[in-house]
Amino acid sequence: MEETMAALQNDGEEDNAELLALQRIDETCTNFQQNGQYLEALECMERGLVLRQHFFGAGSDEVWRACKTVGEMCNLLAMTYLQQEDFAMVLELLKKAEILTERDPAGRAVTFNNLACYYRRQGKLHAALQYLQKALKIEGRLESVDNPADTYLNACAVLSQLGRHQSALEHAQQALILLQEELSSVLGSDNAGPPKADRVAVLAIAYHNVGVEQEFLKKHNQSLQSYRKGVEVAERYLGGDHAITSTLRNSCVAARRTMLARDPQARLQGMGKKAARRAPGGVVDKTLKKVGGMISPRG
């Protein structure tokens, strides 16, 4: 009996020690995050995950919640390293995230989106498209998705580079529908607060993407209308001096020049009308559907 009690006491002391160690790890992780030391925070999270697996059991809710948090950090860091072009680190982090999000479908969709960004930067367009298709399939099963339009815009970018412009147009149009639904409560309403600038920027880019694909498909009048709508949204909500507004305005001017060059009759009809406003700078690269590249979904 005494031996049993001693064993239980020892077990209790070991459990308390593990819990205290876990608490210290969590506190250290929080401090690292507050100081912007995210790689160090990730290392702490991984140590905490191992302790949780030992203490709570590998299949426990506590462990899967921790997996979700660690997966989010992996995605955040991966996109940071992608900007720095540290591609080996990007792939390592995203492969970790893929494992960690086994029971987090929304997180796995984000991971697949980010893997698509990675493979596109590597020039592996078919691999990028496969991951985007997987992400769309997952998001299609979820009741709620953060920024679902972004995945369609990324798919549009890859499809366009692959020369599949009709499919790219369809994805851009679907993104446009989703963005209009997302922003319907604030756009065009005097009582609502201003919309988030980053989401308005994506809406303007979506109009631009539609215009790009329509131009590829030789739907020049429709293309020009889409470009103009993108400029209109950007000017109204981002301001005339915003970098995205300037880039989209240049695209609109270039599209109009192309249409006039192809259709002299349109030139005659346009005489006397107000000329499209011009801005300094070059025309946006039509192979980049988003200004600067693909949209990186939620880190």
TrEMBL record:
TM segment ranges: none
Keyword Repeat assigned: yes
Entry keyword set: Repeat, TPR repeat
Pfam families noted in UniProt: TPR_12, TPR_8
Ranges of the TPR repeats in the UniProt entry: 109-142
SMART domains assigned: TPR
Designated name of the protein: MalT-like TPR region domain-containing protein
Species of origin: Pelagomonas calceolata
Taxonomic lineage: Eukaryota, Sar, Stramenopiles, Ochrophyta, Pelagophyceae
